[in-house]
Design brief:
Layout: H1 15-37, H2 41-119, E1 122-126, E2 128-134, E3 137-142, E4 155-157, E5 162-169, E6 174-178, E7 185-190, E8 196-201, E9 208-210, E10 224-227, E11 239-245, E12 256-260, E13 270-274, H3 289-292
Antiparallel strand pairs: 1-13, 2-3, 3-6, 4-5, 4-13, 5-6, 7-8, 7-10, 8-9, 9-12, 10-11, 11-12
């Protein structure tokens, strides 16, 4: 015999089902009205206590999902905030370095201004473009030339002492020969006693020589050498070098050594001194002996 199969539908249909649905709908409206009015609150508490554990169990997946999502978003936010703070720290570090550089530049410029007051002449600030420090040549190329009024022979100083003088000039640049160049000589005097001599370059940026001193010259290590003003190129009284060593007493020729005070190979700003102390022109020589004689006050 074949087994009889049931043909009952999965969901019941009919007027009874509609009646039950309408009854549940009315009960829901009634419960909502009671809830809004606050009636039967005391009777509701036991049922709430009974279903509280069920609500906790049912809400576990939802709470886990929100916690995991919050954890992921928090980690992403922390990473982005960390990256942003790193970028801000880098920017602030760059600004700090810039401020430090500006502070050092301000200090150097203040030193140059102080030097300007010491010199008392018209000066022009120039920046080095290149520095050639060879045994046979000590030169600095600056970024100012004849367009700015720079001329051959003008003195160049920094915030500490004498650097050199202008050797060659072009429109937009100039070559400055250092005082340590082997071909350069500068008239100096000992600041302690006024003894005059000449400081010669040696080709080394940390040493000058004083070859023209007598055996009994009153000069000692540590003496400050300043410009004497002779020649009208370098302003008088400006620091040049400091005596560092004296030759032995038994030496045949006493050649003293001195260390330049200016920062010859580390300067960022230089002062070109435009002094008005130009030498007086010579009186032209005439063949007439009477015309060549200077006029006296009576003749005038």
């Amino acid at each position: 015999m074949r087994a009889q199969t049931s043909n009952k539908p999965l969901f019941a249909t009919g007027s009874t089902l509609h009646f039950k649905l309408a009854l549940c709908f009315c009960a829901s409206l009634l419960l909502l009205a009671i809830e809004n009015r606050g009636v039967m609150t005391a009777q509701r508490l036991p049922f709430t206590a009974m279903i509280a554990p069920i609500r906790q169990v049912v809400s576990v997946p939802t709470r886990l999902f929100h916690q995991l999502a919050g954890l992921g978003s928090s980690q992403t936010e922390l990473m982005s905030e960390n990256q942003r703070l790193k970028e801000e720290a880098l920017i602030l570090r760059g600004r700090q370095l810039k401020f430090e550089a500006l502070e050092q530049e301000n200090i150097r410029l203040r030193g140059l201004l102080d030097s300007t007051f010491k010199v008392g002449d018209q000066v022009l600030i120039a920046e080095p473009l290149a520095i050639n420090v060879y045994p046979h040549e000590n030169l600095i190329v600056v970024n100012k030339g004849s367009r700015y009024g720079i001329e051959v022979g003008q003195a160049v100083v920094d915030g500490n002492g004498v650097v050199g003088q202008v050797l060659r000039v072009s429109a937009n640049s100039a070559d400055v020969v250092m005082i340590t160049d082997p071909s350069h000589a500068i008239p100096v005097q000992v600041n302690r006693n006024g003894l005059r001599t000449i400081a010669m370059g040696t080709g080394q940026t940390d040493r000058l020589e004083l070859p023209y001193l007598s055996g009994n010259a009153d000069i000692q290590p540590g003496d400050l050498l300043v410009t004497s003003g002779l020649g009208g190129v370098f302003p008088a009284g400006y620091p040049v070098a400091r005596v560092v060593a004296a030759p032995p007493e038994a030496a045949a020729s006493r050649a003293y050594s001195a260390a330049p005070i200016a920062r010859l190979d580390r300067n960022r700003e230089l002062l070109v001194v435009r002094s008005d102390s130009t030498p007086l022109p010579r009186i032209p020589v005439s063949n007439d002996p009477i015309a060549s004689k200077p006029l006296t006050n009576a003749a005038r």
